[in-house]
Design goal:
By secondary structure, this protein is of the alpha/beta class. It folds into three domains: 2-83, no CATH class; 112-164; 181-369, P-loop containing nucleotide triphosphate hydrolases (Rossmann fold). Helices cover 45% and strands 20% of the residues. The strands form three sheets. Strands 8-7-9-6-10-11-12-13 form an eight-stranded mixed beta sheet, with helices on both faces. Strands 1-3-2 form a three-stranded antiparallel beta sheet. The radius of gyration is 38 Å and the shape is rod-shaped. Bound molecules: guanosine-5'-triphosphate and magnesium ion. Magnesium ion is lined by residues 193-194, 218, 224, 264.
Length: 376
């Protein structure tokens, strides 16, 4: 086998050279483009290289029993080197094909179209359940045209719309003329019950001129009563401290002119059955129109779920998520409401009373979960 390499400025010219030199029986083994830099890289010139072979059995049979050698530009090289290079190229191609094939068969690429990968990653980072995230991508994709899918804003908007449908919310507290509403906030210790009551009461009292009453059943800590009393004084609303069920009945009767009664309860440990039973008893006496379970999003998902299960002996009909300003993982909200189907009433986003509270709105919350900054 005789092997030679040819360089020319074009493929046609290189092939002519091969033909002229090795004749029409020559076999082309390899072609490649060369980019030759001229001195000082002033000009880039492209050229073509052909490696061609001629079976010497055809033209000039070898009879001296030498090893199978080839000749390139006058040099003699071992033919095996070419096969080694060929083998390396084949291995590289095989590995590329394998990567593509594995991507095509990877369930992720089947469930999450490539254009959604950024959003998908963000959702997982924000702790949205993998199953829910994939479901969202799928339903968003079904509603988009191919050209819409090329637009990142459109993708985000579409996922936000789909997510909003999974986020049940309820209208804010409202009062018809002459109506009275009793609203209780319950939940684990330190979730933000008292602060949230202060925010709500301040808004309805100061902005809407509603007559507000505070009742606190949190008599376990002196500081707890003082905390609520401070807010009551600022708002100019009365506060009743109740120690027994009888106290609750009397307080409600005494203040039958109040339009909005906010009942603050002591933080209860979801692990303490006696505390939960006592709370359920209190709710039986007050029969609130609304019972909001207050959960801090800074608490880990499993603890939030545990609290929801334990507080379910109380007829909770609203969820308030607090401390959204302190979390990077708001996706847990979506996971929770996807399981418990209780609507969200309010979100709180800071310690300031009364500013840092907002009425839960599905699309706005979806944007928060998607990582769109709060003030957008
Ligand atoms: N960053 C932040 N802090 C909040 C928010 N809501 C409440 N807090 C803070 O959380 C802490 C506990 O709030 P509280 O309102 O006393 O909570 P609680 O549920 O009444 O607590 P207990 O009565 O002890 O069960 C306080 O320091 C509040 O200022 C919020 O939305 N964001
Ligand atoms: Mg409190």
């Amino acid at each position: 086998m005789k092997i030679k390499r040819y360089e020319a400025s074009s493929m046609e010219e290189a092939i002519s050279k091969v033909k002229a030199d090795l004749g029409p029986e020559a076999i082309i083994l390899h072609t490649r483009r060369l980019h030759k830099a001229w001195p000082f890289n002033m000009i880039n010139k492209s050229a073509v290289e052909i490696t061609a072979a001629l079976d010497i059995n055809v033209s000039q049979p070898k009879s001296n029993g030498e090893a199978d050698l080839g000749e390139v530009d006058g040099e003699t090289i071992v033919l095996g080197e070419h096969f080694d290079q060929l083998q390396l190229d084949i291995d590289e191609i095989k590995s590329i094909v394998k990567t593509i094939a594995s991507q095509l068969t990877d369930p992720l690429f089947q469930e999450v179209p490539a254009c959604f990968l950024d959003i998908y990653e963000k959702l997982l980072l924000n702790k949205v359940d993998d199953d829910i995230a994939k479901k969202l991508m799928k339903s968003a994709q079904e509603k988009l045209t191919t050209s819409q899918m090329a637009d990142p804003d459109m993708l985000q908007e579409s996922v936000a719309r789909e997510m909003a449908q999974l986020l049940p919310v309820c209208p804010p507290l409202s009062l018809a003329e002459g109506e009275r509403k009793v609203v209780a906030l319950i939940g684990p210790t330190g979730a933000g019950k008292t602060t949230t009551i202060a925010k709500l009461a301040a808004r309805y009292s100061l902005y809407e001129g509603r007559k507000v009453l505070f009742i606190t059943a949190d008599t376990y800590r002196v500081a707890a009563v003082e905390q609520l009393r401070t807010y009551a004084d600022i708002i100019g609303a009365p506060i009743e401290i109740v120690f027994s069920n009888q106290d609750v009945r009397e307080a409600l009767e005494r203040h039958d002119d109040k339009e909005l009664v906010f009942i603050d309860t002591a933080g209860r440990s979801p692990h303490n059955d006696a505390q939960i039973n006592e709370l359920a008893g209190l709710m039986n006496i007050c029969t609130p129109d609304e019972i909001h379970l207050v959960l801090s999003v800074t608490t880990k998902l499993s603890d939030q779920m545990h609290a929801i299960n334990r507080f379910s002996s109380v007829p909770v009909n609203r969820l308030i998520f607090t401390k959204l300003d302190e979390t990077n993982t708001p996706g847990t909200i979506l996971n929770i409401v996807n399981k418990v189907k209780v609507p969200i009433s309010y979100l709180t986003i800071g310690q300031n009373v009364p500013e840092d509270i907002s009425i839960a709105e599905s699309k706005h919350l979806a944007n928060i979960i998607l990582g769109v900054p709060l003030d957008e």
